[in-house]
Amino acid sequence: MSEERQVVAEVLAEHERMVAGLAGLERELAEAAAMLTGCLRRGGRILVCGNGGSAADAQHVAAEFSGRFLKERAPWPAQALTVNASALTAIGNDYGFDEVFARQVRAFGRSGDVLIAISTSGNSPNVLRAADAAREAGAGTIALTGSAGGKLRGSCDVTLAVPSSSTPRVQEGHVVLLHLLCQLVEDALC
How many angstroms separate the CA atoms of 102 and 104, rounded? Predict the structure, then answer.
């Protein structure tokens, strides 16, 4: 087997093991979906944050909720805290990068809202501070992490920890979990 084929086979096998392990998160997925469903039923909003690839995931899932996922429906209020470059740079400049999400949560988050906090390590300081700010506002918190969970695991209401320590596999698992949440919420509300 060529070196390239071996790499492909190993990565795909690792991906399959990670996806199979997501079945162990059925209870946590149900809790997170119920939290999001309740939030939207009460007229709340969904806030989402993360860095790097997790920032892209935040934008992706906010678009699925505010646009649509699989069903034609009214748009739901969901906002990625990563998309306003002026806010990110102003807050980062004036208060430090650790505050870029927390400050926005304090501005937009209310009791009954939900924050989806995405961090592959579970230790991103700005994501941890956002979770703290959400709890202070009375918002629910859902963490998406890797298998270790980091500090984020203990600071959120529900943790969806992808069963892998490989950053690429964790990020792949996050996309699967976010799509599952979208489908579960749509099924409940539509």
Answer: 5
Output phi, psi for 185, to 5 deg: -70, -45
Question: Total structural domains in the chain?
Answer: 1
Check if the beta carbon of residue 133 is closer than 8 Å to that of residue 149: no
pLDDT in tens, 33-72: 999 999 999 999 999 999 999 999 999 999 999 999 999 9
Burial class of residue 52 in the structure, from the number of CB atoms within 10 Å of its CB (0-12 exposed, 13-18 middle, 19+ buried): middle
Provide the residue range defining the domain that includes 39.
Answer: 3-189
Phi, psi angles (nearest 5°) of residue 84: -95, 95
> Domain containing 63 — which CATH number?
3.40.50.10490
- The model's pTM is 0.96
pLDDT of residue 1: 67
- The dihedral through the CA atoms of 106, 108, 114, 120 has a sign that is negative
CA 6 – CA 3 distance, rounded (Å): 5
Strands (E), the chain: 46-49, 78-80, 114-118, 140-145, 158-161
Task: Return the ∠ at Cα 172 (arms to 165 and 68), rounded to 5°.
Answer: 145
- Helices marked H in 22-110: 26-41, 53-66, 85-95, 102-108
pLDDT band at 168 (very low <50, low <70, confident <90, very high): very high
